[in-house]
Amino acid sequence: xxxxxxxxxxxxxxxxxxxxxxxxxxxxxxxxxxxxxxxxxxxxxxxxxxxxxxxxxxxxxxxxxxxxxxxxxxxxxxxxxxxxxxxxxxxxxxxxxxxxxxxxxxxxxxxxxxxxxxxxxxxxxxxxxxxxxxxxxxxxxxxxxxxxxxxxxxxxxxxxxxxx
Length: 164
What we know:
Blueprint: E1 3-4, E2 9-13, H1 19-28, H2 41-62, E3 67-73, E4 76-85, E5 90-97, H3 106-121, E6 125-129, H4 134-141, E7 145-150, E8 153-158
Parallel strand pairs: 5-6
Antiparallel strand pairs: 1-2, 2-3, 3-4, 4-5, 6-8, 7-8
C-alpha cells in the first residue's frame, strides 16, 4: 500500500520499527474521558500500551490480511491507516492522525483515495465510528451513510455510484 496522495503526503507499509510510533498515535486518539486520570503517568502509560496491544491483536485476529500503512508527511510519520480489501468491500479498520496533522485536509484526501479505489473495485467502503465524533462528521461530508450500529460504534458505508 505504498501511495503518494500529494507532494508531501505518502503512505508506506508499516513494519516493526513503527510500533512505538503507532502506540504514541493510539494514545493521542484517546479523549479525556477515555484516559485514566486517577492513575499516575507511569501506570497510565502501561495501561495505554496494553490497550494498544490488545487492539492490534484484535484487528489481526479479525482481519489477518488487512494492510497497515504509515501516513507520512515529508517522510515524518503523522498517522496510520488499517484497511482490509475484501472481494465485496473495502473496510477501514482504523484511521488515525496525530493532533497536529488533523483539520488540514489530509484525512479527507486519503478518504477520497479509498473511495476512488472502491469505484475501481466496484465495492462499497465501510467503517465503524464513535457517534458524535469529528470523524463521523468527516465521513458524512464524504457521503458515508449510517448503516446500523455495533455496540458503541455506528456502522457507516459509502456506495460507489455504479452500485447505487
